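Title: Prediction job returns without error message
Component: structure pipeline
Severity: low
Priority: P3
Assignee: unassigned

Description:
Job completed but the reporter wants confirmation the result is attached to the right record. Sequence as submitted:
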Amino acid sequence: MYLPSQFAPKDRTHALELLRTHAFASLISSDDEGTPFVSHIPLHLEDRTAAGAPAHSDWVLLGHVARGNAHWRYLESRPRALVTFMGPHAFMSTRVYPDLVRVPTWSYLAVHCTVQARLVNEPDAKDRLLKKLIADHDPVYAEQWRGLSEDYAGKMLSAIVGFELQVTDVQCKIKLNQHRPESHARMHELYAAGSEDERALAQWMERLGLTGVEKGQGGPA
């Protein structure tokens, strides 16, 4: 993606957090004619990075698609793919600036992962994969899944194809007008009072010290 240096965080934990908190991803491959093919799916992140190893050196994304979805065939024949994650995003008005000679833009957080796919077809392995996804989103359902009849569970497992996506490269973009400090105080104020996404952006501004208030300095009395 287009990634100006001011929007490229050096801290890889930002990308890790976005992958876990905004897990509904777009998996992008090429079909047999070379046209991009996209599946929108939840993914489970496993950080298998050994102590002392570079960040994201062993991140693996786990997921599955319906067997009727041709995407798994594309992953089988062309394992290299792209996965994108979109974090909070919102319009940014020119009202954040102290002057009028400005243009509006859009604030957002996003992560792109280049991956190498390996299919998971063995029933027990798919069952373990599903349980990790269940634990992410509906852990109470785990007991219900275990209580299903062997025949029914087998049919459900045979209807999907699982995969592991080994992350080979990560790009993280945090676009919060970092290069325009004169906008930060008003921008944070507007976002903090706005929609759910806007409030999330305000929290990221606080985390990155982009509130217009210097560290150690309080707000107005």
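Comment from assignee: result matches the submitted record. The beta strands are 24-30, 36-42, 44-47, 59-66, 80-92, 105-120, 160-175.
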